[in-house]
């Protein structure tokens, strides 16, 4: 077991089981880059403030860069006995450069160090997730643009309701993803306060320059309160909440894909590369990718619940409970990146069965509201028109026909307002193309919506492409 930095305080060595229980190196080692970058900025500040010598700072920076290079190149393995990534890096640095390495931790604590590393890591991952989400959004928009006139039933209560287009349906998910991007941007902006320099909880007596280290590390400003700086995990919870909402949207889309590719719907066909077979039924083509996305949403929700539960009763400032934040949020980040990177090509390669969608419209009385509107436009009160059309639907169900198949003389028995032009008014394509209201399914309305969406997305794309580059 490696010697702990704090071992001198204790008369007995730590029990090996306690060491294993206490250690976080197995999961926080992924933050080695952020830990080293934070340490370099800290060393530069210490030298700039004449707290350590320029020579020591130079040795520290060279040593840290060499450690980073060796980790990346596979020359240096993480010590499983190390307490955490911070102690591992510091111990390795001291082993390599001697006394100068021992000066690095001046005016710093692991409390502000871990808060810094986690914030830097999640800030970077927020940008990575945003870029993956933009790719998913763009694939969704492309499917919409390809299907502006692909008519399909719109549903409420999973019952055929009114005609829309596949473009309109895909655009709804594009709007959800656009809102998710705004929330990711807000989460990233809320990570712009640097905790470094808060030390254990009460700052330091050294003449540090916290604004310098904040700017060096790409933050807008240092945290305003040292207690809050080390105990704040709002940024972790906020990101987990945003990721949970993204997974809600992905899961809803996955559920519809599962339904649509079933024989009962057959609205789409998944590419063979994004489906699986059965070990016993040779005819099966299963939407396992979509099902896994739907299932993995629960993991991300669980991470959010774990984080909220962990933090809800903690007194200020740092408590060891907070070590539990990493595995939860790391898993949420990994899960959503995996789901997005798999969903995007699945969306891009799926085939839309336009004929089946149109046929479903013709069998579901989705033009019933349009028939009622036809009567309203001829002067009848809506509730009266609603009652007449409801009666006609009931008769059509008994006869096994659609509203458009009823002869005009049958319609006139219900109201003399019916005329030959009713058949044009309740034609499925007409029902869709006339819905030109803002946000509606008419091709022109969807095109306007997609154009508006692109304008709203431009600053979000620029933020994640430039500011976080």
Automatic annotation (TrEMBL):
Main location (coarse class): cytoplasm
GO-annotated cellular components: cytosol
Annotated pathway: Amino-acid biosynthesis; L-arginine biosynthesis; L-arginine from L-ornithine and carbamoyl phosphate: step 3/3
Localisation per UniProt entry: Cytoplasm
MF term (GO), any: argininosuccinate lyase activity
A GO BP entry: L-arginine biosynthetic process via ornithine
Catalyzed reactions per annotation: 2-(N(omega)-L-arginino)succinate = fumarate + L-arginine
Class of enzymatic activity (EC top level): lyase
One Pfam entry name: ASL_C2
Keywords: Amino-acid biosynthesis, Arginine biosynthesis, Cytoplasm, Lyase
Location of the Argininosuccinate lyase C-terminal domain: 365-432
Entry-linked HAMAP family: Arg_succ_lyase (MF_00006)
Listed PANTHER family: ARGININOSUCCINATE LYASE (PTHR43814:SF1)
Descriptive protein name: Argininosuccinate lyase
UniProt gene name: argH
